[in-house]
Amino acid sequence: MTAMGSTSAPSDQTIGGLGEGGLVRAVAALASGPTGSHPDVLIGPGDDAALVRVGGGEVLVSVDVAVEGRHFRRDWSSAADVGHRVAAANLADVAAMGGVARTLVVALSAPADLPAQWAVDLTRGLLAECEPMGARLVGGDVCEADVVSVAVTVLGELPGRVVRRAGARPGDVVAVTGRLGWAAAGLAVLSRGFRSPRVLVEAHRRPEPPYAEGPVAAAAGATAMIDVSDGLLADLAQLAGASDVSIDVRSGSLLVAEPLQAVGAALGTDPLGLVLTGGDDHALAATFPADVALPDGWTGIGAVSAGAGVTVDGATYDGPGGHRHFAGRG
Amino acid sequence: MTAMGSTSAPSDQTIGGLGEGGLVRAVAALASGPTGSHPDVLIGPGDDAALVRVGGGEVLVSVDVAVEGRHFRRDWSSAADVGHRVAAANLADVAAMGGVARTLVVALSAPADLPAQWAVDLTRGLLAECEPMGARLVGGDVCEADVVSVAVTVLGELPGRVVRRAGARPGDVVAVTGRLGWAAAGLAVLSRGFRSPRVLVEAHRRPEPPYAEGPVAAAAGATAMIDVSDGLLADLAQLAGASDVSIDVRSGSLLVAEPLQAVGAALGTDPLGLVLTGGDDHALAATFPADVALPDGWTGIGAVSAGAGVTVDGATYDGPGGHRHFAGRG
Questions:
Q1: ipTM of the predicted structure?
Q2: How much is the pLDDT for A139?
Q3: Of the residues A16, A257, B50, B194, which has the maximum number of CB atoms within 10 A of its CB?
Q4: Could you tell me which chain A residue has the CA closest to the CA of B325?
Q5: pTM here?
Q6: Which of A97, A103, A105, A100 is nearest to A48 (CA)?
Q7: CATH assignment of A173-327, given 3.40.50.300, 3.90.650.10, 3.40.50.1780, 1.20.1420.30?
């Protein structure tokens, strides 16, 4: 891992070795520059989205890229599914800041022999995911590449206050809203050659992030927030690290829904592991002052203390960790 | 080619067959939706950048993607060169609207064994290209892929009026500023195994778009503008098409710089062909009312008339056309 202040990586270090986190930190250190941050960059790299002053307003901006074979397979997901999924990852990033997505642009790299209908259907999926909140696709770029990759950038705005990953305080309550483990269970099912339970497969293909709950949590006084894209424990670790606190999760408070129990039984795995470490559902996790009533739909699942790291029921979780981008993501 | 109103592509059509233009039109038709454009989308897909109302302001947004083997080769360009080049393509898109770039986000896909230093140097190049105008890199995403690809999204703002591709009127003067043919000549040199003239190779590696001239042209009353990324004739054809006019270029008014003449002689090609069809310099081409004095640094090269299409000295240009993305771009 490269330290925050460093502007170069060890000469023998690879991207895979450094990991996404290390690389993002190295790049963030460069981007902040030797003289610190720019007054128009209200929130820079390292949060779910950046917040910048531009064109007379304040704009949230985030980018996510999905690559065939890593993030999706064309035999497991339709083009429209991929559109839904890539859009959802971006829209959830904006929601996790307390914002509302307004505008998307997309860069599509694809083999020249990709059916044009696939690209059209991808666009339909993107648009359908955006439509309920009124977000618009306003531009794109297309170029040839050996595999399909889709990079989506989202612009959003804040109806109220912004909520960052940093800000959780000892004594705060940790709460979540949205599904946990469903998309990972769907992927596990597909990976083993099955197509059911259908509700889980669909959760992998088209996650249903609780977008509207981002601004709701901000209005309710959330002190920190993140979208659960890499798994609950992994993302809470990000939030805890940014906030310089520790978090303990009470496993008994986590809902292990019936389809997850069924998959756990069928696959011989602990369904709680899916809930704790499964990514790509884009649930929202946030911390709230203890005296705040949690908004409807949010469930308290743990507590913030002084210290560092994330524990489950007071102990280090010894199941598999949240997935790492460079350790293969399915 | 798919017509504007269509929302699906012929079932046997591929992306390569449809071409970037056809695909962008099909997607744009989808994005505009059955009920027309959204009031917050002031300029939608199909121009150099979109213009949207978001976060209380008006923001220009554009995305460009560069793929290893198509847009750059790691043995011909350093990581910093690639950073400069990808940033330049984006910043020029904003300039071509009359705007100033303020913020970039980058999505990097790369093999896990890519040296981390390459990504750091790429970032340095991006930052160095942005620094003179005060634009900032505020976020990014990284994921694993078989080849390196870099998707950059830029946000910008308008110091004055916006200038679109549409707006040229019969009687207007066509003018350009910036280099034409240099990057293509540099690529031709590299493709044949040479490394000189160095000034042309450098023009391929790090184009020098005349960013500041975009707002200058807007203030001077430009009626239409585009950045020359695909070649002068190809991009003027875009401008003419969007404006529903024809354009005639006077070849004698085009500067064929000495290094281009040298390369033409060495390679046995007409250097004027490089000037007319070479892409990736990101010069700016604009139309001005005939009674407007062209700003310093702009050269009148042709005239706008009623009709359609682009001619050179009154005739169809029979040299090689502007490059097409899916016909291989070097």
A1: 0.86
A2: 87
A3: B50
A4: A143
A5: 0.89
A6: A97
A7: 3.90.650.10
